[in-house]
């Protein structure tokens, strides 16, 4: 079984609010449909649908003022709009997608998943559905509400379901020695050991590893998954065929984190 | 606290597949926004979004063949499409709507609600959100999957939440002595006792009560609610101001079922 997280920067245009990258969504739905065999849980990020609104209403900070409630609703609605597109792309290719919006069954405590009833998800998987989840606005038992990242969610699901692998589809080829967009000498790390990953996550910056963008968060969430013996792959989902190959267990250019 | 169920025939055009009655949706959202005070749980039916697809794929009968899985996904997706419109209409009027698609947290057993974790719903209500649910495709522990009606769901929620009242907004004025569309002498029953309601639900037809359309199902679901001392109102949601008044506890033309 695979858990695949598709980053918000893969499926949306991060520069323009509420702009989906339709061509990439269609291509990825096609790769998922063609790769079928192993059961799959798909998680996607919010990109330009979730982040600008979550920021506008300061949802990550939790409850501060009444106007945030409507902001919570608006932000969730934008995530559903993006999710609808992905569900449509999957259904039109014969994938029996089963949307599971996290806000309807997950409660966090200070931003970390506390209540997570995965009965429906397990049952849906067993029947052959493809559960589709996403980063979402959620109720939080400490601060009122919070934002649950797709990274945290996918790592937790990989652990709960003891999957074969956890795949992070991002918009770069993997983890580099330094920022490849700034440094022409940046080198892609094909693999990262648990201790290397742990060091970079603990220090929060590293002389040997580029932790810009969302990479630090991914490494941080990946740690318990790698510790549990589940390999974590970080690869470029903007490049055609990568997701298809990774879902089939074939080798792909990228970074693999393992124990 | 109110539980309001809006019938599919109120918010959609039942004759044409996937056709919403946008004007009615906007008007009802306005009445809900204006009536605010008491907490509200809103449940809506599927009308021409849910029923034709559920029928096409024989979802009520449960699992028969593999093609139904995609049918399940398509039917749920259509319900989400209708739900999205209602959520948008509420948000645009300042109502912090909190969609809770039943398929993500309810499992039925032979079509009756078995697993129902209302932790999130209760927490959302407490914070001042307006939870919005709908009739839905759900997983079923006996027959694979099933259709959960908005009638069953709203009655169950009224019981679980011990609400002030349960309101069924339909496209007729209430329960009649005979079918008002066929019989000009049909008389509206302003109130119905528990025993009268129980008799008509048990016999499945009645010489004194019109049980055509979805009325029998509503009376059947209403029985345990009425038994618990919660009055059930059946009224015409197609007529302006009725929902506004009923939500505020004002008297409205219709049928009231009470112990």
Explain the overall architecture:
The structure is a homodimer of 259-residue chains. By secondary structure, chain A is α/β, with parallel strands linked by helices. Chain A folds into 2 domains: 40-149, Acetylglutamate kinase-like (Carbamate kinase, 3-Layer(aba) Sandwich); 164-259, 3-Layer(aba) Sandwich (Carbamate kinase). In chain A, 39% of the residues lie in helices and 22% in strands. The first copy, chain A, has 9 helices and 12 strands. The first copy, chain A, has helices at residues 8-11, 22-34, 47-56, 67-91, 119-127, 150-161, 194-203, 215-227, 242-247, and strands at residues 2-6, 40-44, 97-99, 106-109, 112-116, 130-134, 136-140, 144-148, 165-170, 191-193, 232-236, 254-258. The first copy, chain A, has an 8-stranded mixed β-sheet with strand order 3-6-2-1-9-11-12-10, with helices on both faces. In chain A, strand 4 (106-109) and strand 5 (112-116) form a beta hairpin. The two termini of chain A are 19 Å apart. The relative contact order of chain A is 0.17. At the A-B interface, helix 4, strand 3 and helix 5 of A face helix 4, strand 3 and helix 5 of B.
Q: At CATH's second level, what is the architecture of the largest domain in chain A?
A: 3-Layer(aba) Sandwich
Q: What structural class do helix, strand and pairing data of chain A support?
A: alpha/beta
Order of helices and strands of chain A: EHHEHHEEEHEEEHEEHHEHE
- Which strands sit side by side, in order, in the main sheet of chain A? 3-6-2-1-9-11-12-10
């Amino acid at each position: 079984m695979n858990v695949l997280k598709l980053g918000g920067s893969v499926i949306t245009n991060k520069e323009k609010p509420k702009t989906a990258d339709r061509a990439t969504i269609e291509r990825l739905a096609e790769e998922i449909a063609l790769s079928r065999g192993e059961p799959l849980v798909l998680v996607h990020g919010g990109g330009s649908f979730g982040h600008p609104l979550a920021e506008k209403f300061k949802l990550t900070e939790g409850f501060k003022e009444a106007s945030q409630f409507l902001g919570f609703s608006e932000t969730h609605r934008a995530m559903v709009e993006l999710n609808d597109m992905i569900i449509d792309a999957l259904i039109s290719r014969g994938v029996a997608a089963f949307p599971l919006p996290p806000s309807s069954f997950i409660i966090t405590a200070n931003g970390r998943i506390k209540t997570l009833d995965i009965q429906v998800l397990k049952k849906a998987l067993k029947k052959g559905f493809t559960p589709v989840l996403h980063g979402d606005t959620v109720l939080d038992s400490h601060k009122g509400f919070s934002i649950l990242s797709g990274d945290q969610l996918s790592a937790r699901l990989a652990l709960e379901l003891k999957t074969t692998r956890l795949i992070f589809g991002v918009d770069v080829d993997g983890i580099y020695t330094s920022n490849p967009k700034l440094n022409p000498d940046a080198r892609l790390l094909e693999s990262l050991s648990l201790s290397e990953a742990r060091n970079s996550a603990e220090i929060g910056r590293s002389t040997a590893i580029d932790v810009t963008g969302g990479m630090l968060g991914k490494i941080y969430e990946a740690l318990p998954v790698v510790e549990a013996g589940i390999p974590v792959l970080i690869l470029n989902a903007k490049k055609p065929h990568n997701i298809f190959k990774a879902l089939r267990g074939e080798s792909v250019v990228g970074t693999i984190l393992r124990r």
